[in-house]
Amino acid sequence: MANQDWIKSCAHAAGGTRNYKLWVPPSRDVRESAPLLMLLHGCTHNAEAMAEISGMNEVAEANQFLVVYPEQRRRSNLMKCWNWFNPKHQSRDGGEPSILAAIVEQVCASHNIDSDRIYVAGVSAGGAMAVIMAACYPDIFSGLAVCACAEFKSATSMSSGFKVMKLGGPDPALQGQAAFEAMKPGLARKNRQRMPVIVFHGTADIRVNPVNAEQIIAQWSKTNSCLASQDRGNSVELSEKISDSQVPGGRAYQKYVYTDQNGDLLMERWMIEGMGHAWPGSPRAHQYGDPKAPRASEEIWRFFKESRSKSHDASATTQIASVE
User: Fold this and answer.
1) What are the residues whose beta carbons fall under 8 Å from the beta carbon of 2, sequence distance 6 or more?
2) Rounded to an integer, what distance in angstroms lies between the CA atom of residue 77 and that of residue 43?
3) Which whole-number Å values give the CA distances from 178 to 153, 172, 223, 227, in the listed order?
4) Which pTM was predicted?
């Protein structure tokens, strides 16, 4: 991708400074407010690599939204991983979350962004940090998309992070309650009663155990239950629909769709048969991108559009019970 396609900048916050690169669709009408997606790379990567692996810029051009790619510094993590496992980087207004929030604020200040259509996504360590951002900043983000990562605050050290990657994290119900508690400062700024979540994971991922995908859904089910019950209402079970499909000439996959009592889309989980630790549906073969898998970038945007109608609905009154 040509360098002139990128807008390069940096953001400063309480937690420090990070560079980022912003991609704006060349055909965008600046008179209209546009959605924004923050996409967080995995370990060893940068903005260009994440754009190449995901093909997200092409999806953004077709759907007229902006994509911002923050970049981790090597001096902050030797492998350029986001420090999702460190308690210093798991809370609002501190550490890396404060910097990432500042990046969004800076983009919004310089471009015409629809504040009700700002989303966060990530892969691997970037996915785990995206989970933290959705919990810590519900006043900013209206949806979450992750691939091959772990639930909210699943680790509190590097060693426990490796354990989570191998075996899975703590009780998702407890982590779901913790995520809701983390949301409260943001909810005081902007009421929100649901956080749509879409998760992708390969069944052959030997770096991050696929059980983590189930735990993310269970964690956010509990968090969404807490969000929905802030006012009043009756408890209901989420409906789960499972379908099997296959990419023509590619990988088979199972798609789990979770809807609320009104039939509105709330969460999805995609389990891709035989895929390792990779971004699904990469435009080209890559060490960390699988072109034989479903196109995650396109499905992420489709999911955000389908789930948007209820993602910021202050009038909702029905509690959503957890999926255990």
Assistant:
1) none
2) 9
3) 8, 10, 8, 12
4) 0.94
Q: What is the pLDDT of residues 17-36, one digit of tens each?
A: 999 999 999 988 889 999 99
195-211 per-residue burial string, b: 16 or more CB within 10 A, e: under 16: bbbbbbbbbebeebbbe
Asked if residues 57 and 300 have their Cβ atoms less than 8 Å apart, the reply is: no
CA distance 222 to 91: 19
How far is it, in rounded angstroms, from Cα 79 to Cα 300?
Answer: 27
* In this structure, CATH architecture of domain 3-320: 3-Layer(aba) Sandwich (3.40)
CB 60 within 8 A of CB 44: no
Residue written as token pair 């029905």: 318
What are the residue numbers of the active site?
124
Tokens of 275: 């895929």
Q: How far apart, in Å, are the Cα atoms of 219 and each of 48, 172, 235?
A: 31, 4, 17
Distance CA 143, CA 307 (A): 9
Residue among 129, 262, 243, 147 nearest 202 (CA): 147
CA distance 46 to 58: 18
- Helix (H/G/I), strand (E/B), else coil: 165: helix
Q: Is 190 exposed, middle or buried (0-12, 13-18, 19+ CB in 10 A)?
A: middle
The residue ranges of every structural domain in the chain are 3-320
Beta strand residue intervals within 157-264, DSSP E: 197-202, 235-236, 239-246, 252-259
- pLDDT tens digit string along 233-280? 545 478 999 999 999 999 999 999 999 988 999 999 999 999 999 999
